[in-house]
Amino acid sequence: MLSSIRVASPDDFPFLSREDHHITAAMQARKVAAGEILIAHQADEPVGYLRYGYFWDSVPFMNLLKVVAPWRKQGIGRQLVTYWEAEMQHAGYEMVMTSTLANEDGQHFYRRLGYQDIGGFVLPAEPLELFLVKYLKG
Asked: What is the DSSP string of 19-50?
């Protein structure tokens, strides 16, 4: 069980810059300032994070979920997603979205959490990007 999940702060930049190579440092700073990154901690150690934004500027969209290798397969990803979904529901959203590549195991993880396939697209030289949605119970 995790010690805590909290919104990232500037103190988390060393962890984020080491673990998240998908966005620039400037974008990380904007996401932290906007409260759009959640950090999972075990004791005082960051062990995973969830980064999100808004599809069409109105639907919460999970951009990235990552758990540090030694901590995987312990339910941390599930706890991060569940926490995020509860926060989005509390904020009044009825639906959340995410995507994953068709050749990644993440699709099965999201389906187990109640996400449903809603479509996809293919970028040049990339596998199919699957989009998934989950309706939050109110």
From this structure: H--SS-HHHHHHHHHHT-EEEEEETTEEEEEE
